[in-house]
Amino acid sequence: MPQRSPVDESLKQTGLPDGAIVLNIGIALQYAFAQPDVKCWAPYLEMGKELWASAEYELHSLLCDSAARAPKKWLEDVVSGDVRELAVSILTILVASLHVPPSIAVPIAALVVKKQLSAFCRRKSRKPKRTMSQIIDERRPRERKKRNT
């Protein structure tokens, strides 16, 4: 019997299917910039799917060698190391480079780790209609101009 990777073992213990993680991405997007007392309903799953598609495309271009359909060379040490290092690397890219709020970056990183980076890179991602920045910026509160009175 093949030995399970630490990632597979950890994710099996959580029992979360991909759909639940995508739902959490949508919920995080809805409430990332909301006031603490705001409660509402939104199409969380659809929002999560759209944001995940954009994240998948953008992360694929940063992490994967499209010709080899494998992780880029600079990721070899991270991939062969501890799963926490991979998760931290993906979180750092999302938060520092792509300006994704941590509340949204965590479930996205979890989904990439769950899919395993080598399998993630083998998939061909399609360019979405909107970028992650466009989707997230749509939710950011706008500054209101003060009136001169």
Describe this structure in words.
This protein is an all-alpha fold and 149 residues long. It has one domain (6-35, 42-139). The protein contains 8 helices and 2 strands, in the order αααββααααα. The chain has helices at residues 6-14, 18-31, 44-63, 76-80, 83-97, 102-115, 117-122, 132-139; strands at residues 64-65, 70-71. It has a two-stranded antiparallel ribbon with strand order 1-2. The longest helix has 20 residues, at 44-63. The protein is globular, with a radius of gyration of 17 Å. The model has no long low-confidence stretch (mean pLDDT 80).
Which helices and strands appear, and what pairs or packs with what?
Layout: H1 6-14, H2 18-31, H3 44-63, E1 64-65, E2 70-71, H4 76-80, H5 83-97, H6 102-115, H7 117-122, H8 132-139
Antiparallel strand pairs: 1-2
Helix pairs in contact: 2-3, 2-6, 5-6
Provide a compact summary of the structure.
The protein contains 8 helices and 2 strands, in the order αααββααααα.
Defining key terms:
single chain, 149 residues, mainly alpha, two-stranded antiparallel sheet, 8 helices, 61% helix, 3% strand, globular
Largest sheet: 2 strands, antiparallel
Q: What is the number of independent domains? A: 1
Computed CA radius of gyration, to the nearest angstrom: 17 Å
What do the pLDDT scores average to?
80
- Uncertain stretches of 5 or more adjacent residues: none
Report the structural category.
mainly alpha
User: In whole angstroms, how far apart are the ends?
Assistant: 76 Å
SS summary, helix count: 8
> Oligomerization state of this entry?
single chain
Number of strand segments: 2
Percent range of helical residues = 55-70%
- Approximate strand percentage: under 5%
Shape: globular
Strand order of the largest sheet: 1-2
